[in-house]
Amino acid sequence: MSQAVVSVNVGILLPVLAPAIGAAAVLVTDVAVQHLRRAHYVIALVSLVVGVLGTLAGLGMAAGEVRRTLCLPGGGQCMYVADSVVSTLQIAALLAAGLTLLLSWPDDKKELPGNTAVIVSLVLAATAGATAVAGARDVGSWLVALELATLPTVALVALRGARSAISGAIALLTAALVSFALLAFSAALWFTATGSGFLTPAAALHGFNDPVRRPILVLAVVVAIAGIGFKLSLVPFHAWTPEAYDGAPLPMAAFLAGVSKIAALAALLVMIRAIPLGTPPLAAIAIVAAVSMTLGNIMALRQNGVVRLLAWSTVAQAGWVVLPLAAVSSAAVHASGAYLLAYVLATLLAFAVVAALVQIWGPTRARDLAEYRGLLGEHPVLASALGLALLSLAGLPPGFLGLVAKVVALRPVVTSELWLLAIVAAVNAVLGVAVYLRWLLIVVSTPDASAQAAPLAVPGVAGPVAVLAVRVHPATLVAVGLSAVALVLTSLNPQLLLGLLGR
Amino acid sequence: MVALLIAAMVIPAVTGTFLILSGRFSRAAVSDGNANTLSLVTSVVTAVCVVAVVIARPVLNQPWLTSLGVRLHFAADGISAPLLLLTAALSIAVVVQARSRPPHGASATTFYGCLQLVELGALATFLARDAIIFYVSFEIVLIPMWVLIARYGDSHDLAARADASGRFVLYTVLGSTLMLIGILALVQASGTADLDALSAAHGAGIAKSTQIIIAALLLVGMGIKVPIWPLHTWLPPAHTIAPTAGSVMLAAVLLKMGTYGIVRLAIAPLPIGFGALAPAFAVLGVMGIVWGGLACLVENDLKRLIAYSSVAHMGFVVLGLSSGTTVGLQAALFANIAHGVVSALLFFLVGGLKERWGSADLATARAALREVSPRLGIALVVGFAASLGLPGLVGFWGEFLAMYSAWNPAPDRPQGLMRFLVVVAVLGAGVAAAYSLRVLKLIWSGDRTTPAHEDAHGGEWSVLAVLVCAVLILGIAPGLVLNSTFKDVAAITMEVPR
């Protein structure tokens, strides 16, 4: 007798279940014992680590090898499928969430806005959404998981309560609603075109081979790209990005740049991978990729605030992330994932350094690009870490990871002979270098004699490293250290990262 | 022996990183003098490794990025050997010269660290036998060179420094990204990234139209680095602003990475595609000869003048490459080395003069070099004589053979056009004589003795003397280089050795 209900394998679902249970546990703990703060963070980190352990079995699997669960009775289709690409995106989301939590670790000296239980559970809920959407294979869970990954971030942005935070949250909320409407529309179109609730190549092929339903299927994909374009900050759906990044507390901006982007790409990849191979290149993706890179870089060049610069750099990098997807192939999916991971790692390091500087300099100064003049002399450790992150984003040695990511992202484009797109990408590689070197030049230049910063006087402590230990919260230092070590290791051997995505 | 190959790259990498980081984290860790000594020892040890590699020809071939099929494949052959030796020798020379003329602007440890990393990038580029590794190595030199120009350059004008260093990086990144696209297309079309296999296939199995597209991407990409007229506009400001060591490495080593790449990645694997583009390529080269020469006739900044003369000299290299014959490629590779030696000599000289004079302006009346500083004077005369292509000096062979080969180009090249270009190039060589003599008249001859300045001595003089000797020796015995490159060049052109 076949099973009456869907099969459930908890081990495979662990990357989703662990943060979800963690979120619930934090809320329960808060009800049981009030005024706990660090305990919430510890619970959260433990749940993230458990989630990471759940992904390990899926990393670096051979092509075609998958782990599936939530399968319909009688050997039917499965609603949750994890292969090496999915597992890699999941581990990246979990680790990025952990880094965000380290950056927002409560400080004895100052009160954080909002209850820590609320912050932590929202972060965990959004992370669970991100890991869930990566594995989702039916339009229902796909849609719900993606919204679960998005809506908590609105609250996280608004928590600071400042005017800019509220306006950022409203921008984000509006984008999220429009995006949800588009995605729901796309899901309906998909169902109409394929007659199936599953996002699988078999279902897509069914609709694709029918000349009447093919246009509906194409429309479903294009509308989905638009809906996800909001979440990935692709032009012309990017307008919320600078507002939300700048208004949000810094760790939450890092969350938007890390976990949210992973969730968005994971959702896009679910749709792209359902499209049958051998489909002609997707002009829609080629156009948004080219426009995003160009506008993002040009606007980033004009910013005088570092968070806004990073926000526009996200727009440009989102263009690079979807660039390989213009060619429909499994190599393109791998390339897109690899580029995203390189971008997330470097961006999180940059955010971690800015967060450390917020603690030393105060928020106003640390968000002003001009104040970074002479950082190399003042804080060599932070400046070196920031320099590595910027060079990785620019794709220049010693940021070999970014350089290799550029090679990886361009390869499918060249393979498909999309020469015009490749030339646009080359021009944008130059613009990107200009964006990040502009910041780096400020960091390495000597401070003006007139505006010489007062030397850091910490009694009884000598040396730049010791100064950091006194002024910066240990959790932030751990975040800087971990991301810097990860970036150095993957720069020395980019295969460490590329290998995760599968052989 | 493979250990030596690895050591030749690891030693400068480790020393360079150490020097840059040590200056950051504790100021007293390495004094300026120690940094110079450490740098000198590293360069000498690296040079010994490079010589051993050139003699023993070990091969390193290890998988690196298995997902992309990229291998750490390094080896030397006849074409890269002279360039490797030039790089290693000049890396010693810049450190020796900095002993008597220390860098200024920021910490000396970072300066030496950056020089080591530039050497690493150049050596890795010339050693790379995998197309993707070639690209990665090509990019290594960018940031250290950017730092050298932006932090240690001409201190008079900060905005000009930011502009020159920025232009250098942005132009080069545009070039190298176009080159990357070309490389990826080449790898895709031929199915291998192994430069030896690409070279041996001679473009078999790649359609002519594809060959032309890929060759065009590669030529534009590397043409920016060479630089080929009209893509040269980054070079004069970069040379004018860069510190002496930066100018020397830029002119003598970094520009060669472009022409070397064209031979390796465009001419050898894509003979048909390159052949189709060769006439246009040759026209641009000759435009560079004339343009650079005319600019030199009126230029009043001595460093900028030598930069423009570089554009002209690289034009002869381009002409030789375009001919499609063994003689032409030989000429181009020889002219590469010749320009490396001569431009290094001239930039060492002019860098020193600029520090003595306070500027490099030719319009200001100076003491005649032959009166107040005969050592600098004789080096200047030899340098400019070689630059104008005087027979018996190193500059002659490359340019003479390039014109000879273009006069008798490969059968598939338009003979009439090529001969016309040779005539124009001869006129360009005449212009070179005119501007060389103009410079000598302005600063070498005459009998003014004020304001007096010191002559070269110590490290500066030994570097100049060695380079003057190199100009003479290679001028008298060009076979030292030509014999090294001959076998591998003949394999590329598939001409039966005569």
Account of the protein in words:
- With 503 residues, chain A is mainly α.
- Chain A has a domain at 277-450 and 458-503.
- Helix content of chain A is 71%, strand content 2%.
- Chain A contains 21 helices and 2 strands.
- Chain A has helices at residues 10-32, 38-56, 84-103, 116-135, 139-158, 163-194, 201-208, 214-232, 240-247, 250-274, 283-301, 306-322, 330-361, 363-366, 375-378, 380-394, 400-415, 419-444, 464-471, 474-492, 495-498, and strands at 67-71, 78-82.
- Chain A has a two-stranded antiparallel ribbon.
- In chain A, a hairpin with a 6-residue loop joins strand 1 and strand 2 (78-82).
- Chain A starts with 9 loop residues before the first helix and ends in a 5-residue tail after the last helix.
- Chain B has 498 residues and is mostly helical.
- Chain B has one domain (2-493).
- Helix content of chain B is 76%, strand content 3%.
- Chain B contains 20 helices and 2 strands.
- Chain B has a two-stranded antiparallel ribbon with strand order 1-2.
- In chain B, helix 16 (374-387) packs antiparallel against helix 18 (415-444), helix 16 packs parallel to helix 19 (458-476) and helix 17 (394-407) runs parallel beside helix 19.
- Chain B starts with a helix and ends in a 5-residue tail after the last helix.
- The A-B interface holds A 334, 376, 380-381, 383-384, 391, 396-398, 400, 403-404, 406-408, 410-411, 414-415, 417, 419, 422-423, 425-427, 429-430, 433-434, 437, 441, 444-446, 463-465, 493-495, 498-499, 501, 503 and B 21, 24-26, 64-68, 106, 121, 132, 135-136, 139-140, 142-143, 146-147, 150-151, 162, 166, 169-170, 173-174, 177-178, 180-181, 184-185, 188, 213.
